[in-house]
Amino acid sequence: MPEKKPIPPETTKELTYTEKVWYTVGIVAIVAVLILIARVAFGVLLMALAGCLISIYFHGLGDVIERKTKWKRLPCMIISIAGSFIILGFLLWFMGSKIQIQISQLSDTLPLSIGKLKLSLDETPLGRKVLEATSGGSSEKLFATASQFFSTSFGVLGNMYIILFLGIFFTASPSLYKDGLVLLVPPDHKELARRIINRTSLTIKGWLKGTMFSMILLIVLMPIGLSIMGVPLALVLGLLAGILVIVPNFGSLIAMIPGVLLAFTISTNTAIIVALIYIGVQTLVQNIIAPIIQKKMINMPPALTIVGQLIMGVLGGAMGIIMAVPALAIMMILVDEIYVKKINPK
C-alpha cells in the first residue's frame, strides 16, 4: 500500500492586532455613515411629504372654488394660493402684535404659575407625594425633554421656507412629479401606481379637511371658554390648542398644560373647570366633528397611531411626530393595495 502524502495545511495570513483594530474602526465608520445618510434622507423625505401636504391643500381648495364657480382651473388655483396667503397675512397683521404680547406674557407668567401650583400641592398629603415623585432627577429630566422638544420644534419652523417652496413647486406642476413616480414602476404595475397615488391624494385631502376644520374650531371655541372663566392670555392659549391639533393624542395634552397652570393662579376650582373645558372641547372636535368631516377616510386604531408617533418621533424629531398620521395613512394604503388585495381579492 503506497503511503498517503499528508495534505499540507492551508496557508492563511493572520491579521495583526493593529490591522484588526483598523478593520473594526473602518466597519464602524461605514455603519455610522450609512446611519447618518439614512437619518438625513429621512428628514428630507419628511420635508417632501410636508410639501406634498401643502400642494394637496392648495389643489383641494382649488377644487372647491372650481366646483362652486364653474371657472377654469388656472384662475381657481391662483385664487386658492393668493387667497390663502392674503388671509394668513391679514390675520398676522390684525392679531400679530397682540399674540406677540401674550406670548411674552405667557413666558413670564408660567414660572409663577408653576410656583403657585407647587405651593397648592404642598398643602395636601396627596400633593406632597406628587411633589416628591416629581422632584430631583425626574423633574430635571422632564424639563430637559421639554426644552429638547421646543428646540426641535423651532428647528422645524426654520425649515418651513423649504417646505413652502416645495409645496409651491408641487402645486405648479403636480402631473410632472406624479408621472415621474409612475415612470419608476415596471409597466405591468403602472396602473396600480396611479391608483395608489390617486387614493393617497383623496385620503390626505380628507385628513387635511378634518384637521383644518378642527384647528379653526379650537382657535374660536377655546378662547371663548377660557375668557368666560377669566383665564388670562386666552387668545394665545386657543391658538396653541388649534396648532397642536395636528399632533394627535399628545398635542391636546401639551396644549392643556399652560391653560391649567394659568387657571391655578385664579383658584384650584377654576383649574379643574378649565381642564374639563379643554377635555370637552377637544373631545367634541377631534372625536366627533373631525371624523364626520373626514368621512372615515382615515380609520386608524389609536394604539397604532401612538406607536407610529413614537417611532416617527425617534427617527424625525418633532417633524416626524407631526407627519406621523399622513405617513401612516400612506403606509396603510400601500399595504392594502400591494399585499392585502393580492391575498384577499374581492
UniProtKB/TrEMBL annotation:
It is found in: Membrane. Keywords: Membrane, Transmembrane, Transmembrane helix. One of its GO terms (cellular component) is membrane. The chain crosses the membrane at residues 21-38, 44-62, 74-95, 149-170, 215-247, 253-281, 302-335. GO terms for biological process: transmembrane transport. InterPro entries: AI-2E-like (IPR002549). It is a multi-pass membrane protein. Belongs to the autoinducer-2 exporter (AI-2E) (TC 2.A.86) family. This is AI-2E family transporter.
